[in-house]
UniProtKB/TrEMBL annotation, chain A:
The lineage of its organism: Bacteria, Pseudomonadati, Pseudomonadota, Alphaproteobacteria, Hyphomicrobiales. The keyword Metal-binding does not apply. The keyword Membrane applies. This is Cobalt transporter. InterPro entries: CbtA_put. It comes from Mesorhizobium denitrificans. Keywords: Membrane, Transmembrane, Transmembrane helix. The chain crosses the membrane at residues 74-98, 110-128, 148-168, 180-202, 222-240. Pfam families: CbtA.
TrEMBL record, chain B:
Keywords: Membrane, Transmembrane, Transmembrane helix. This is CbtB-domain containing protein. It comes from Mesorhizobium denitrificans. The chain crosses the membrane at residues 20-39.
Length: 258, 69
């Protein structure tokens, strides 16, 4: 049962990654190319200003490292498909746990609600503080701090969302689905507001970087995530319903199914 | 909760925790390792030496919103 759901979650995640790749290719890649062009221009200006012999070694086309073609093609599709399959699988596991424990909501509805909550906590909240950045915008030497802060915020956000669901579940019987959801959402928003204010801000934007490229990059990054979570949320529910329908059939509830 | 009007005709039957847990632990762990390799390997931390994985998933990492170089 759970294994079957997990497999379907990963399968729909692969599909989500493929659709996201099409979108990323059209809308994301041009922005990455523009950012890299800016990065190279910056490096060239720096190299021209530095005294001869003191120039930093450019690590272009290092031995055997993937070039731009691979990065924008095979590398991009691999990254998105692996990410899609992984979040799809984890999504299926969360679904398997939540199903039947959050009131009378059916498989398709639960899948959509969970995907929305996942998008809010995994994508939306982290990007409010630490948005996606194209190449050239961040400093190499702060990667450690930036990665730590990003994942701390991610864990707090996802943990807070899990607690919000637990709270909603507690309030369900007394206040009804609508009010329980509202109260739990308000609690999550309040918690996240405090977290976002408390966490340090990162601003390493180099002077002269095109705001248009930045905006287009970030909006296509969000677009990729919307596609991934929409495909998973809407697609997984349909697949899960069939699995769970069979399950219920064997549990002698077939008569009430549809 | 049987008075919720938009509820489906059937009551969803929860899968026992004991059945979910082993999948969640082992499956979840493997999948998180997969996300780690796409999102963070050879960036802030590095299990495998070199920059091949980082450069290979470079564009995906940027576009998925992970911190990258």
């Amino acid at each position: 049962m759970v294994g079957s759901l997990l497999m379907r979650g990963m399968l729909i995640g692969v599909l989500a990654g493929l659709v996201a790749f099409g979108f990323a290719r059209i809308f994301g890649e041009p922005q990455v190319d523009l950012a890299i062009a800016f990065e190279e221009q910056m490096a060239a200006t720096e190299a021209a200003q530095a005294p001869a012999g003191d120039q930093p070694a450019m690590e272009e086309t290092d031995e055997g490292l993937p070039g731009r073609g691979t990065q924008a093609g095979l590398g991009l599709i691999t990254g998105l498909v692996v990410y899609g399959a992984a979040v799809g699988g984890i999504f299926a596991l969360v679904f398997a746990f939540a199903y039947g424990r959050l009131g009378a909501i059916g498989a398709r509805g639960l899948s959509a609600v969970l995907a929305l909550a996942a998008f809010a906590s995994v994508v939306l909240v982290p990007l409010l503080k630490y948005p996606a950045n194209p190449p050239a915008v961040s400093l190499d030497e702060t990667i450690g701090a930036r990665t730590t802060l990003y994942f701390v915020l991610l864990v707090l956000s996802v943990g807070g969302m899990a607690l919000a669901f637990a709270l909603a579940r507690r309030l369900l019987a007394q206040h009804g689905t609508w009010n329980a959801t509202l109260i739990a959402s308000a609690a999550y928003v309040a918690f996240i507001t405090v977290v976002l204010i408390a966490m340090p801000t990162i601003n390493e934007m180099p002077a002269g970087f095109s705001p248009d490229v930045l905006w287009n990059f970030r909006i296509s990054s969000v677009g990729i995530q919307i596609i991934i979570w929409a495909v998973i949320g809407l697609g997984f529910g349909v697949l899960a319903e069939r699995v769970l329908g069979e399950f219920r059939g064997s549990a002698r509830l077939a008569g009430s199914y549809r | 909760m049987s008075d919720i009007t938009f509820a489906p005709a059937h009551q969803p039957v929860a899968i026992p925790i004991a059945e979910v847990l082993p999948w969640a632990i082992f499956g979840g762990l493997l999948l998180m390792i997969a996300i780690y390799f796409v999102g963070a390997e050879e960036g802030a931390t590095s299990l495998i030496s070199g920059m091949y994985i980082h450069e290979f998933v470079h564009d995906g990492r940027h576009l998925l919103g992970f911190p990258c170089h």
